[in-house]
Amino acid sequence: MSAAASIRERLASGPPRGLGCANAIVAEALHSSDVLAELVAAAQDKRAVVAIRAANALKKVQQERPNLLVPFTKKILRSALECEELRARWNLTRVVGLLPLRGRDRALAIELMFEALRSESGLLRTFGMQGLVDFSAEDVALRTRVRPIVEEFAENGTAAMRARARKLLPLVKR
To answer: Which residues of the chain have pLDDT under 50?
Structure first.
């Protein structure tokens, strides 16, 4: 069995609900660029459970050591742009929002965040808003576009959106 199949098959194993062995793979990915590369590739797997678990694992890798994902920025962005599985999109949207992107990749990521704002999923809309705020940190023009969105979410979003928007408002009002 190849390394790619091994990671994907491990992510596919176990009951469909839950993370399976994703946390163990995170621990391996933190110490092996080969495992991390296969984890990034697994985020594009056609099997929903594999994509969901891979995206969750990538989010956890990013939380522990964000610099490890930098070499895979384009692949992660592509996965997020092509992802149709909602639960995988939640995590990929959050990961993309924290990647150091420039130029066309940054523009694509910002479009992904605006697209997330149109989702029926409140959680995806919240992650899209968070990503836009993150990208607007050093971009006054984007911050100007994002401020009314955050204000709207603070007033009219779901409870989770309102709570997140209230925390983000000081960041877009500066």
So the answer is: 1-5
**DSSP 8-state secondary structure symbol assigned to residue 16:** S
Dihedral over alpha carbons 43, 46, 49, 52 (to 10 degrees): 30
Q: Which residues contact 31 (CB under 8 A, 6 or more apart)?
A: none
What pLDDT, on the 0 to 100 scale, is given for residue 146? Answer: 97
Every domain of the chain and the residues it spans: 1-81, 101-174
pTM recorded for the entire structure: 0.90
Q: How far apart are CA 169 and CA 58, in angstroms?
A: 27
Q: Cα(59)–Cα(149) distance, rounded to whole angstroms?
A: 25
36: CB partners within 8 A, 6+ apart: 29, 30, 61, 68, 69, 72
CB neighbour list of residue 128: distance below 8 Å, 6 or more residues apart: 93, 112, 113, 114, 115, 116, 117, 119
What is the pLDDT, as a whole number, of residue 5?
46
What's the distance, Cα to Cα, between the start and end of the chain in Å? 53
Tokens of 89: 């999109």
